[in-house]
Amino acid sequence: TEVKLAPCSLVLRSIPRPTPKDGEVLIKVHAAALNRADLLQRRGLYPPPAGESDIIGLEVAGTVDGLGPSLKGNWKPDDRVMALLAGGGYAEYVSVPEELLMPAPDNLTFCQAAAIPEAWLTAFQLLVKQGEVVLVHAGASGVGTAAVQLARLFGAVPVVTAGSREKLRLAEKLGAAAGYNYKEESFVQGVHDFTGGADVILDCIGGSNWEKNVSSLAVDGRWVLYGTMGGRAVEGDLLGRMLSKRGRLLCSLLRSRSLQYKADLVRAFADRALPCFSEQPATLRPVIDSTYKLEDIAEAHRHMEANRNMGKIVVTVTPQSEETP
């Protein structure tokens, strides 16, 4: 029923502390960040992969609390870490394969670090090339703010869509070369006026945007779909129009990827991007919209569902999560 699907259906309960298995590290969670997938899972539309925790939450930051057998890394108790998860983040403790662990930058709070793994790794998969124009939908979202900064880091040119002038200003401050308020203007015309067509489109909207996306795409362009907030159904000549552009439609879900894929992605991100969070001044920075206590998780979900956030919504699990190291 709708009551069960509402944010108020989220409840806190006590369960046994997880025990790290072979190759796993137990994290004492200080902060966890929200993702759109969390809302879908709450509504029963995005179950966890087989064998994974049914507790919601895909990214956390905290400290190492326990070490499982057969670890290869040099992890130590109380190390500051952040982790990509397939589930289990809304908790005081979570056990994680060590391959999905990254050191949290010393200059970031736990709240800031928790905002990195899922959103930034999703954007990092783009691997855009120097000079390419990248159209980022929801440019002020967690993934959007990451994609804009990573595109700039790799020498690409990000342009964005968003639903308010305030969100566009944020994206432009982060490096977007242009921004379009989809509620007030045609981003198709804007993209063509700016560049003639986008080489890459990073799209979390899906169905309702398909015609505009194809119209915005450059010949030989790539349309990367990682969400369907605007619906899954498509009516019309999608295949014919994509064929005429020689376009490629790539679909990306990070949660269901293999451990090996995620491990390779984490390793590449740690090598190429992670040091940029610690530079002075930092080249990359996570954008935090708001923080909520774990007991206020329902309100955090309502805030995301209202599309009010600019950047990441973070849940604090310990009082120290917002303190600078």
Automatic annotation (TrEMBL):
Residues 9-315 form the Enoyl reductase (ER) domain. Keywords: NADP, Oxidoreductase. The keyword Oxidoreductase applies. Gene3D superfamilies: Medium-chain alcohol dehydrogenases, catalytic domain, NAD(P)-binding Rossmann-like Domain. It comes from Xiphophorus couchianus. CDD domains: p53_inducible_oxidoreductase. The keyword Oxidoreductase applies. It holds the Pfam family ADH_zinc_N. InterPro entries: ADH-like_C (IPR013149), ADH-like_N (IPR013154), ER (IPR020843), GroES-like_sf (IPR011032), NAD(P)-bd_dom_sf (IPR036291), Quinone_OxRdtase_PIG3 (IPR014189). It comes from the Eukaryota. This is Enoyl reductase (ER) domain-containing protein.
